Predict the structure.
Amino acid sequence: MDEGKGEGEDQSERNGGKKNEWGEKYSRQIILPEIGLEGQRRINEAKVAIVGLGALGSVAAELLVRAGVGNLILIDRDVIEDSNLPRQALYVEEDVGKSKVMAAKKRLQEINSRVKLEEYAIHLNYRNINLLQQADIVLDCTDNLKTRFLINEYCKKEKKKWIYAATIKTKGYVMSIFPSGPCVECFLSEKVGETCDTSGVVNTITFSIAGLQVTEALKIIVGKEVESRLYYYDIWQPEMRQLQIPKNKNCLACQGEFRYLRGDDQESMIKFCSSGRYQILGKKVDLYVMRERWKMIGPVVDEGVALHFKNIILFADGRVLIKAKSEEEARGTYSKWVGN
Ligand SMILES: [Zn+2]
């Protein structure tokens, strides 16, 4: 409402009387007592990792970059589908079929050219999770419990702050999780045989939950005392609740028993619920060699981080995404075109 109110004032007044290195850009955040110039400096120096660049992650990444967060680590294993576009703010129609990290990086760099981005088109697992080491805060924007529990254990072990977020239908959850406090395994358990029954989601809840998650991140970054509470929001009612989660004395992660970090549950094939693609974790390959081989058979699109050929997307770490009707068909496609 009062966006235009400060038009007549001079710049120093609007920036709280202090000159800063960004000019007018962050003036509306700097005059906000909750942030201030010192807070903005902390935001600018922060390094945030975002795991998953889907409905939550794409919105969270955009908000962080617009707020001036200086460094982002972007992690996603999937490509953009037409059915993502109603929610996934960073992508447009011509991005369909591209890797999310690559499309996100391009768009985020256009929004804020100063932000430093590191992108990883990988399936986060117990072998590569150490790349979260450099992050001040980790945002969980994943759509599956396995990755969530892996992050939970890693952050518990490495004493890192992270923010859990999840949405379903018209509802969503957010919780800031600290090393010595309750964790997600204290109140969530992995359902046996999680299926891909998609239940639908309204885009306003994913935007709202990402907004709440990023607000928690900004509060932590500027040094505000943040409580570890589970926030629940049903946007259709609308109804918001705060729940105090106690530490569960039977929680294995809280007792230092890290099953996911040991890789006990590593599966060589998984079906992505969001895209219906099968992921096979294969051996590391030389993308150049594969590209030359496939080019003799048919058209190949080289995205830098991945090759697209027929119904196959091959990443440099040997990971393959295959669009198929069944696990058998996916395995068949894999052995025919990629090898065993
Ligand atoms: Zn716990």
Observations:
- Residues 182-183, 185-186, 248, 251, 253-254 surround zinc ion (CB under 6 Å).
